[in-house]
Amino acid sequence: MTTLSQTDSLSSGQRWLRALTEKLSGQNLAETFRQLLLPAIGIALFLGFWHLAAPQVQTSLGAFPGPADVLEQSGQLWQEHSNQRDRAAQFVTMQEDRNERILAENPDAEVKIRDYPGAPRSLTRSLPAWVRCWPVLYWQPLLPCLWASLSA
Fold first, then answer.
1. Which of 2, 21, 93, 123 has its CA 20 to 30 A from that of 57?
2. Coil, helix or strand at residue 44
């Protein structure tokens, strides 16, 4: 009984860390390496083929981007997202300062914080879309199997 109560008292972070250290222990390290080897080779082959094939694909907008181009653009997207978040935080801070000055002069004044009028941030818009679409993309290959099992 004490083992159950001891494991239940661990937080999820501690359980995750314990599982990771067990996977990376001497006995399990070779097995973990074997389990990760084929997926790593598959990802490396995919990136290699993508890198070789991307310049060959011509679209109306130019050459298809390769993995290095996508990585560079993702860094720029993250930087743009961070800059927009900083601007939004600055906007709220400026309003709070302004409202404090107004309330200092007139305690009965009605003040409010307005929403940031800037363009919506790309990641803020696209992350909910990915969360909604991911299950559909993930389960789509299984739908024919599910349909066949339900109709049988």
1. 123
2. helix
